[in-house]
Structures are given as structure tokens and as C-alpha cells.
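INFO  loader      accepted 1 record
INFO  loader      residues=519
INFO  predictor   begin
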Amino acid sequence: MKSEHPQRPFALAVVVLTLLVLAWLPVAWWLSATMTRAEARRNVDDIRTRRVEMLKLQTSGFTDRWRYLTTSPEIIANSPAVLRALAAPTHEHVNEANHYLGMLIERTIGDTIWVISTEGRIILASDAEKPTTLQGRTLSDRTFFHDVLIGRSRQFFGHGIYTGQPGFYFSVPIRVGDSIVGVAAIKVRIDTLDALFGDPSILISDQHGVVVMSKNPELLWHTLPGAKVVSPSLRAQRYGTLPLQPLGLAPVSSALLPAGLYHKAGSETPYLFLSQQDGSNARLTLHMLVPLPELNRLPAQQQFYFALIGGSGALALALVTLLLTYLRHIKRLGRQLADANRELQRQADSDFLTGCANRRKFERMLNAELTRSHRYGNALTVAIIDIDFFKRINDSYGHPVGDAGLVYLARTVTAAIRDGDLLGRIGGEEFALMLPQTSLQDAETVLQRLRTTFEAEGFMAGGRRIGFTVSIGYAAAVAADDIESLLQRADAALYAAKQGGRNRVCFSAVADAVPQPNA
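INFO  predictor   done
INFO  writer      dumping C-alpha cells
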């Protein structure tokens, strides 16, 4: 019996440990999934933020160039060289106009400029000297030509009937008085627009939801989710014989992936799909289809976390009995050590007399708060409070009374400020007050209230009430500030308060930031 007795606690511990481990494993699996999802969400949010900014910049730049394209036909229509060639189509005038159009096309992102007669024949062209020129060809059945003659849209997307190259056309009527004598048109090809973007994830869709520009040819001429139905006639005119297939974006269904991601047909890689449309260009929308292959590792990452969490938990459970015994012996020692450390830390960070922060702690906390202010743009105000004629109090009532006045000041200020504010004693009768996230108006209110409190109340010492006033200087942090410059400006404001008659609150602007000694 005696030989079996020591084995009973061990056997019981094994049983309890086994049950705990079995109960722990589902929790570990849930924790691993939660950590994996949270990390994936942070990564995706970070990527989305950066990509949205990039897309906005790309959209802004593209819109500016697009706006220039829309105004270029107006320049052509009002060109004296073009009007002369239309009025008197002599060889000299035609050559002059073609040369002008050739120089103009080099200054735009367009590919070709045409001047078309009212019958639909190209009579002037920027590429007139090239063998591939369409000068002399007829474009009378093109939408960008005949719609302009009846006052309709000046922008059109379609395939070239001669070149087969898709592109955008911009056109305006050429008028002489009230009569239309021709049409000025400029074409920019899709591959030209594509060259404006260096990011391979950029794609552009037209108003019908068809991808008309992409560096990835596999995405070109596909329809986006929710695309408008295009009639057969419009489809043939705009897209020719191109097969318009759905892009095949479907929301992700994985529990590890955050919402807002998509899977592309035939790919397991998650994609981030963003869109940005400028108000001045309702016909085109810029998108980003960003692959996130790093998210394919999420299942393996969850398994790693599960192994790490599950193994760590099992090991912790196995050691718990030994640890409990050990902790029982060191509990008292640990409590005593913790109390001693807290007391040492308090003494290291506190002023021995007033109990508020000492200069070292104040400057350390101010440095941290100033760093946050620079990073996030938070308001930060620092004030220096000095007792007026403190030497007279010491000389008249003795140093113990002066010490009681310092304690009274520290308690009064501490009771009046917020938990996030900090009061520190940085000199004999000089205190510094840090007011994070506090505007100048609010700081002025707080400091004036403190000043009037000291002026009105006073403190009890030796059975009598001792009154005193304070002078306060304060400054607001700016981008160029460090601790030294900020405190120097507050000190300069304190100096101004002293010089101005004491018992007042003064503010130091950046232009006044000249270090001066206290008075």
C-alpha cells in the first residue's frame, strides 16, 4: 500500500493533464484562426490604404491629360491654318495645315488628328506625310463624325474601320459664323493610354463596364461585375468582333480572409479590387486589380500558430504543478520585491517634497508626448508655473512654510488637471505642466483658472493663511520643436509674465521663442 501511495498524485496529474490538453486544443485552433485573420486584415488594410492613395494620384493625373484631349479639338477648330485650308484648299494651305497638325499632335498624348469635311472625307491629317495616313478616306458613318454635326457627344470609343485599332475619339464642329464647315477630331489609341501607367495592376473600364485598357492582355475586353448590357449594334460598333467575356471576379469565401477580397476565375490567389472615378470624366473608371499571393500562405500560417499556441499551452499545462509549488515559495518574496521596485520607481520618478513628477520623469514623458504630437498632429501645450516672490515667503515665514506652499501648489494643480496631463517640479519653486491634446484656448482657460485660484485662496501653515500669486508662461508645440526648444519658449513666456508685473499668464508664439532666464 505504501509503495502505491506516491503514484496516486502522479496518476491523477496525468489524467488531469490529459483532460486539460484535450480541452485546450480546440481553443488553440480558434486562437490560431483569430490571429491569422487579424494579421491578414491588418496587411490588407495597409495595402488598401496605400493603393487607394496611388489610385487617386493616377486618376488625377489621367483626368488632367484626358481634359487636355477634350479641349484639343477646339484648338484645331479655331486654328487659322486649318480655317485657311478649308476656305481655300490649295496645295500650300493644305501643307501648312498638315504641318501645323503634325506639330500639335507631338504636344499631346493623342496619336492622330484629322480635319474632316462635311461630306465625311479626311482632308487634313497630322500624319499626312506617312504612308499609313488616312487622308482622303471617308469617315461619314462614324459616330464621332455625324453626331458632332447634329450637336451630340464629342467623345466616342470604338474600333478604327481602317486600322482595326481601338481608341477614343474627341471631336468638335468647325464653324465659320453659323455654318459648320468641317469636323476636327483627335484619336488616342488604347496602347497609347496604356503607356501612361507603369503599374501593371491598373485597368480602365468604359461606361459599359468593359475593360478597355490593361497591361495584362488576359484582362482586356472583359466585362466587370455589374456591367451594363450592350446591344448587339452598339457592341459591334464599339468593340468590333471582340468576345466580351465576364472577368469572373467572385467574393472570397475563406474564413481566414477579410471581406472585400475577390477570387478571379481560374486562380486561387485573392485579389484586391479598387475603383476610382473622377467627377469630370463619367465615361471612364480607373481600377486596381491587385494580386495578394502572400495570403495563399494563410492556412500554413494558421497551422504554424496552432502548433505554436497548442504546443506552448500543453507545455504550460505540463509544468503547472511544478510551477504552483515553486510559486508558493517565491510568492512572498516576489510581492516584497515588487513593492520595493514600485517604491524605488516612485522615488526615482517623483519629487521628494511635493510627490509630483521630478524633472527627469517630466522630460521623459514630454519627449514621448512630443513625438506623438509630431507624428499624429495632436495639439500639445507646455506651461511653466513659478511662485511670485517665493524668496520673501521663505525669508518671512521660514523654509518649512515655503515647502508647505510648494506642496499646496502641487496638490492644487494635480487636482485641477486631467489624468493624461502631467505636473513636474523642474526647479526650486518652478513647476512644468504638460497638457496633451489641448488647444491654446483651452490651455489659456485652465491656466487662468489656476492663477486665480492661487490668488484667491492661499494655504494654511502654522495656524495662519499664507497667500501668494503665480506667474505662468506657456507655449504650443510646433513641428520643429524638441524638448529643449519647447521648454525654452515656455520659459521665455514666463519671463514675459514676470516682466509684465507677475500674477499673469503669458503665451509664447514661435516668433518669440528666444531663451531668456527666469526673473
